[in-house]
Amino acid sequence: MPGVVVVGAGPTGLAVAGLLGRLGVPVTVLDRHTEPYARPRAVHLDGAAVRVLQHLGVHEEFAAISRPATGLRLLDAAHRPFAVFRRDTAPGVHGHPEANLFDQPDLEAVLRAAVRRAGVPVRGGVEVTGVSDDGDGPHVVLAGGERVPAAAVLGCDGAGSTVAAAIGSGTRVLGFAQRWLVVDLRSPAGIAGWGGVDQVCDPRRAATALHLTGDRYRVELRMHDGETADGLDLPALLAPWASPGSYTVVRRAEYVFRAQLARRWRRGRVLLLGDAAHLMPPFIGQGLGTGLGDAHNLAWKLAAVLDGRAGEDLLDTYEAERAPHVVAVTRAAVRVGRAMTGGNGLFAALRRPVVAGLLRLPGAEARALAGIRTRYPPSAWVDRRVRRGDLPGTVCPQPAVRGSGGRGGDLRSRVLLDELLGPGWALLAAGPTDAGPTDAGPIDAALGRRAGALGARAVVVDDPVLRGWLARGRAGAVLLRPDRVVAAVSRT
């Protein structure tokens, strides 16, 4: 029987291949490059994205090649800070630091090793020219005419995706395009900084500067109309951060930061993920994270469909859940980008005191982040919410916990919650789970039967974070999907 074919060996393609491989699904990854792509691109992942890496078994390796960032500073044209978003470098709600900086080639090396451990082959030097379906399932068409049969095809081949073109995905433009010069540096002596990201809010030349890891740094500079990457005086533009001779330019490349979305993410068992499905400007650092979120959302669903545990309608929920979330995140990135980089002289003069004042208001950061949190719509796989604070469709937090499974097992040392829950469905309660489903307790009979039909592992924890979360959601127990989204609750 054909396996799943993943087109594209970037982080999103490797992640979904690794997740499927760990679930026992046969997978092959095809990529046009014979070697890992050596040019750095993404540099930031939040705690939710690192949690996906945890499901791949590589979060500790990622921690070794990354570093927690201390937050974001907004600087005026003279590079004076006027507002700060601070980040705690300790683990956050998802069990990992909330802002993590890294160099993408390092991450890709970690992911390639992970897919090899999962038994997934990566076939390089292959040019995919199209995807066809003659009624006997999809086939990936390669240059030279070879046709590779597939149980499903996952297009992770980035902007200008061949797979997206094959399914006639179309493009929905969300109204943003800026040209930027991205410069990656090495400086053995180091470049002065505060451990976070600096955003220069100067309409004459907006810029972003950050320390990645070790001796690696990045500076991004907005380009004006008529400018070319080779025509800019790079030493002069980098002078606010580093003097000539103190650094080596690893690369300089022009990028157009865009905001757009595929109008169609799926045709049958051909689906799009990551940049093939959506592009967003980098101002809130969510581009790669949304791709990993796509992988986490789709992998368990596709595995369930392929082995007959669910119908094809489960795949309908992939775009229905991910697209609205990605649109919300993209619009947030566009708003932030315009506020930081746009405007004429009067707008820029007004922006500094207004933004600084808003950031000083209690709860300002929490409100700013609320719009990009996962909140999936109701479906057969997510119960409808009655009140705004209800838990279905949201993601369970992940503290380090002690607990016991429904079979009476005991966990004496603390582990991250997902390690205790295992890879499948889970029934999580803040009370006993070994009583019968009709007995008094936090789990009602209907939820118990539903969990049993799904093979969910029953887990009880005594943890203040989870108890508080359940109490705020007025839930005694929750049924968690493999991607840790709440499907249903027992109400208190």
TrEMBL record:
What Pfam family is a match for this entry? FAD_binding_3
Q: Among its keywords, does the record have Iron? A: no
**Record's InterPro entries?**
FAD-bd, FAD/NAD-bd_sf, PheA/TfdB_FAD_monoxygenase
Q: Which UniProt keywords apply?
A: Oxidoreductase
Q: Where's the FAD-binding domain?
A: 4-172, 255-332
For this protein, what is any one GO molecular function term?
Answer: FAD binding
Signal peptide annotation: none
Report any one BP term from Gene Ontology: 3-(3-hydroxy)phenylpropionate catabolic process
Q: From which domain of life does this come? A: Bacteria
Question: Has keyword Ion transport?
Answer: no
Q: What is this protein called?
A: Bifunctional 3-(3-hydroxy-phenyl)propionate/3-hydroxycinnamic acid hydroxylase
Q: Which organism is it from?
A: Pseudonocardia petroleophila
- Recall the taxonomic lineage recorded for the source organism: Bacteria, Bacillati, Actinomycetota, Actinomycetes, Pseudonocardiales
